């Protein structure tokens, strides 16, 4: 049987242009017919594209192609389900259904009207439209969303006598349209809520780290699960939970109540049931995952989140100041997200980071330590030269994720 693969060339944005592919859609007006395989898009954060590409290859995806903040891949329905359920560093999985050129708003309306929307939803279901535009013709994304919405509801009114409602909070069908000049790409969001909403986080502390970013940091760090794992400033416990899920082979979709594709008309519950029961294997992890925080409230929140993830027996946390912490092993692995300075004065921040560096030199010799921070000047006060630096984004903040190794009897030079 011949499989038809759709070539795509989207411009996605999280904030600003996200990626530009050299490929373009096949020259066709309609691509909504179900095919055995199609070209899918996995969106991610900047800096995690390589990790996501590796994850996709690991779960069997083919045609993996890295873009800026996204990775393209070939897949059928099973692969789309698997990507949603198993990928740790994806934000969402998008399925393209149409590509066309529109030179003005009337052309856009007509092209959207050509699609048989009854193939995707009923009048009893809800939908939303998200638009991203990079165009002189279509320079207002909200107007584009409204025009697409009008074309869809007008079609239902003509054919059914009634229309589906729009729900921007929890729609049954999430529709994306991306316009570059006059080129329009229409996609369905198979994830629904973003995939970083794992379902285990009951509460958060201030400025919590994103789950996808935490998982990406763990993968980028090279931790091979052969030693104890520490987060001594753990906040609400996200890094610890993502480390435990990785170490014990727990899929990130395990705690999710629902994915977007479960509301689709072609949802195959038996197929998804088989995929959700696929074994990652159970790594023979015999080490400890340990966390601490100076705030007793943060530890209480972390304990609630850990319990929600059914990892209470896998993760140990305690209220403790990092500077009082004494690791019980001669080597280990640390990933932590210390305060960036939003609530600390410059002089206090300088002293704080100096103390972190001193602590690593005195009590964490033999450890591999990774620290993420948004202020490169402040991180110099650690007094350690990083072995590796990776640019990442924690929300809108541009950060660097830095590796430090301190060996007994040797002192790294302060970074110039």
Explain this structure to me?
The protein has 416 residues and is an alpha/beta fold. Helices cover 27% and strands 25% of the residues. The protein has helices at residues 49-58, 77-86, 105-114, 141-160, 211-221, 238-247, 269-276, 296-308, 346-363, 376-379, and strands at 11-13, 17-20, 38-43, 62-67, 70-75, 92-101, 126-134, 165-166, 173-180, 183-189, 229-231, 289-293, 315-319, 332-336, 367-373, 388-394, 397-405. The strands form 3 sheets. The chain has an 8-stranded mixed sheet. Strand 4 (62-67) and strand 5 (70-75) form a beta hairpin. The chain is elongated, with a radius of gyration of 24 Å.
Name a few traits of the molecule.
alpha/beta; 2 domains; 8-stranded mixed beta sheet; Rossmann fold; disordered C terminus; VC0802-like; 416 residues; 10 helices
Beta content comes to 15-25%
> What best-fitting shape do the alpha-carbon axes yield?
elongated
CATH class of the largest domain: Alpha Beta
* Helix and strand pattern: EEEHEEHEHEHEEEHEHHEHEEHEHEE
Instruction: Please count the helical segments.
Output: 10
Number of domains as seen in the coordinates: 2
Uncertain ranges: 1-34, 410-416
CATH fold call of the largest domain? VC0802-like
Beta strands, count: 17
Radius of gyration: 24 Å
Oligomer: single chain
Largest sheet: 8 strands, mixed
Short description:
With 416 residues, the chain is α/β, with parallel strands linked by helices.
Architecture blueprint of SSEs:
Layout: E1 11-13, E2 17-20, E3 38-43, H1 49-58, E4 62-67, E5 70-75, H2 77-86, E6 92-101, H3 105-114, E7 126-134, H4 141-160, E8 165-166, E9 173-180, E10 183-189, H5 211-221, E11 229-231, H6 238-247, H7 269-276, E12 289-293, H8 296-308, E13 315-319, E14 332-336, H9 346-363, E15 367-373, H10 376-379, E16 388-394, E17 397-405
Helix pairs in contact: 2-7, 3-4, 5-6
